[in-house]
Amino acid sequence: MTQRISILGCGWLGLTLAVKLIGKGYRVYGSNTSNVKVKELEAKGIIPFVIDINDNHINISDFLFSDILIIAIPSKNISAFKNLIKKVEKSEVCKVLFVSSTSVYPNTNGIVTEETVTNNSPLAHIENLFRTNAFFESTIIRFGGLFGYDRKPGNFIKSGKKIDNPEGFINFIHRDDCIGIIEQIITGNAWNNVLNACADSHPTRREFYLKESEKLGNSMVVFNEKSENNYKIVTSQKMKSLLNYEFKYPNLMNY
């Protein structure tokens, strides 16, 4: 029987992931919050659903008629996720992959691992709702800043705004690596884990954004030289060892 995967959030990451998984032979259900993209999802071979988790009364049982649920939405609505989890508990879903962020970690001015205490934040709270649930297996993947293709870091710089912490360090990851890592979590049955995922290199914000701005022909980059240069360096060693994963874009200064 073809394995079924539901992707909650077919946006910049989720849509490309869905297409990749279909190419691997999976049956993929994909959601968006608007009817506008339904035909686009269908055209790519995705079985489409319109789902807004803030709507507590929506029936998503058909969407959850699946083996694996991948959650790739930016919502930080704790009550909405509690309601979603109740529905997952009653479904056929037995494995959940929750796409999180390294923003859960405080700036420690040092290296952070999966054992580092997180901030007291809505995202960390939502992570814990999945980690402690006994009805399904779950893996939390904490991605660094996402970039690649049309998402160019040089465009992250707002005109006239100084960049803080110029001597702090970057924790970024290319979309191709995000998708490669998710694929290996699925094929390797790497469940019941919390994993960091950032490129191997961690250039300073100054050198990284100067390089990225030059790519776009922007020489007007201004740094806040008075900022405290607080930072964190997120290591992905646990993920690389567990999945035997090699980054496609390990060096952020050379891609």
TrEMBL record:
Reading the lineage from the top rank, the first entry is Bacteria
Under the heading SUPFAM superfamilies, the entry gives:
NAD(P)-binding Rossmann-fold domains
Matching InterPro entries = 6PGDH_NADP-bd, NAD(P)-bd_dom_sf, NAD(P)-dependent_oxidoreduct
- Domain named 6-phosphogluconate dehydrogenase NADP-binding is located at 5-76
The cross-references to Gene3D superfamilies, in alphabetical order and at most eight, read: NAD(P)-binding Rossmann-like Domain
Q: Pfam family of this protein, just one?
A: NAD_binding_2
PANTHER family linked to this entry = NAD(P)-BINDING DOMAIN-CONTAINING PROTEIN-RELATED, PROTEIN YEEZ
Question: What protein name does the entry list?
Answer: NAD(P)-binding domain-containing protein
